[in-house]
Amino acid sequence: MSSTASGKSGTWRNWAGNVTARPAREVTPASVEELSAAVQKAAADGLKVKAVGTGHSFTATAATDGVLIRPQLLTGIRNIDRENLTVTVEAGTPLKRLNMALAREGLSLTNMGDIMEQTVSGATSTGTHGTGRESGSIAAQIKGLELVTADGSVLTCSEKENPEVFAAARVGIGALGIITAITFAVEPLFLLTAREEPMTFDKVTSAFDELWAENEHFEFYWFPHTGNTNTKRNNRSAGPEKPVSRVKGWIEDEFLSNGVFQAAQLVGRAAPATIPTIAQISSKALSARTYTDIPYKVYTSPRRVRFVEMEYAVPREALVETLRELKAMVDKSDLRVSFPVEVRTAPADDIALSTASGRDSAYVAVHMFRGTPYQAYFTAAERIFTAHEGRPHWGKVHTRDADYFAGVYPRFGEFTALRDRLDPERLFQNDYLRRVLGA
C-alpha cells in the first residue's frame, strides 16, 4: 500500500490506522470546475463534503459519511513568479513533489516540517510546522489561497483580497471550504548545515534559551526512561555541500531510524518490561554528525515506523517546566514509553487558529508505536499540556473541545463567525469539527 491512506470496499483509513470512515461516495475532480460542481451536487443531495489528503492526520478531521473529495488530480505547479518570489501550486500536490520541483528551479520554502508525504493543503490546513527561531509553520509562508466555498463559488484571498478569510483559512481545518490552490513565498535555494549530537536532558533544558537563541532551527528528542536527548541544530551555510554519504545515510536514517527502530518497537510492544533498556540503547545508537545539504534534505526524513501522536504548543517560556513535569510524570508512573518525545519551536504568527497564533510557541510531541495502548500516556501528558494553556495540533490526537479553544485562542470567535458566514448550512461539518468548533 502506498503512503496514501486508502481502504477496501469504500472504507477510508488514515495513515496510522486509528481513524476509519465509510463515505457515501468518493470524487476525484480533475479541475476546480469539477470540484465546484461536486460541492454543489453534494449540497443538493443533502450530503456533507470533506477533502482528504494523504491521511497523515491522527484525528478524524477528514472523516465523513458523505462525499469524500480526493485531490490527487489537482497537483503540480501552476505558476512561479520569480520577481515576487512566490510559487502557486494545486492543493493536492504532495510536499515531497513541491520540494523537489522547487529545488530543480533553484528555489526553496524557508522552513518545513520533518515529514513531506502530506499534500500542501492537508499540511497547511492542520498547522503542520517544523522548528524555527524566526521562521514559522508552512501555513505562515502562504501568500495567497484559492478555495471553493459551500455554495460552489471560488474565492481567492490574500492580505489584500478578502483579508479576513486569509487571516483564518491558512489554518482552516477544512471548516471554511475546500482549498484548490496555494501561493507560497519562496526564496533562492540555500544550504543548511545540520549538527546532530547527543546531550543530557538536564543540559538541554537548562541551556534551552541559549540553544534556541543561537540557532536558526533548533530541536531535540528526549528518550523517556533515560536522561538522554539527541539535539539537532540547522543553520544556513555558505557551503560547500557535504551531504551524508549514501552508506552512512542508509545506516543512520534507514537501518537505525527505521529498520532497527521498528524491530525495537515490536520487541517493546510484545514485552513492555524491556522498553527502558531498549530506550537506553536507542538513545545512544545515533552518534554525532554534521552535514550540509539543500533544505528539504536536511529538514525532512523518512518515517516508516507507524505511530500515533499527540502534540501541544505551549508558550515558549513554559517549555522547560512542561518538559520537566512530563519527565517526572513518566519516571513516577509504570508507563513504558518506547518513542522519543520531540521538541520544536515557532515564532508567533497572525493566523487565527494557528497553534502559534499571537504567541511565541514551543511544541512537545508524544508518540506511541502503532498498536500499543496510548490512552494512559496521552491522558497524563495532556493534563500537563493543558495546565500550561497548551494548544493541540489540529491533526494530532487530543480530547479538547470548542469551550477549551475559546479560552486558549483569543481569535476563536473571529474564526467561528467567519465559518457562520461562509458555511451557514455546515456543508463541511463532521464530528471532529462539531467538537472543536462547536455546532
Average pLDDT metric: 93
How large is the radius of gyration?
Answer: 21 Å
Tell how many strands the DSSP assignment holds.
Answer: 20
Output the structural class. Answer: alpha+beta
List the strand order in the largest sheet: 16-13-15-14-18-19-17-20
Unreliable stretches covering 5 or more consecutive residues: 1-9
Estimate the helix proportion, in percent: 25-40%
Distance between the amino and carboxyl termini: 36 Å
Approximately what portion of the residues adopt beta-strand conformation? Answer: 15-25%
Largest sheet: 8 strands, antiparallel
* Outline: globular
Number of distinct helices: 14
Overview of the structural elements:
It is a single chain. The protein has 439 residues and is α+β, with helices and mostly antiparallel strands. 32% of the residues lie in helices and 24% in strands. The protein is built from 14 helices and 20 strands. The chain has helices at residues 32-44, 95-104, 120-125, 163-169, 201-206, 208-214, 246-270, 275-285, 295-299, 319-332, 375-387, 402-408, 412-422, 431-437; strands at residues 12-13, 20-21, 25-27, 49-51, 67-69, 77-81, 86-90, 107-108, 142-148, 154-158, 178-185, 187-188, 191-200, 217-222, 228-237, 289-293, 307-315, 341-346, 361-369, 391-392. The protein has an eight-stranded antiparallel sheet, with helices on both faces. A hairpin with a 5-residue loop joins β14 (217-222) and β15. It is globular and about 60 Å long. Mean pLDDT is 93; it is low at 1-9.
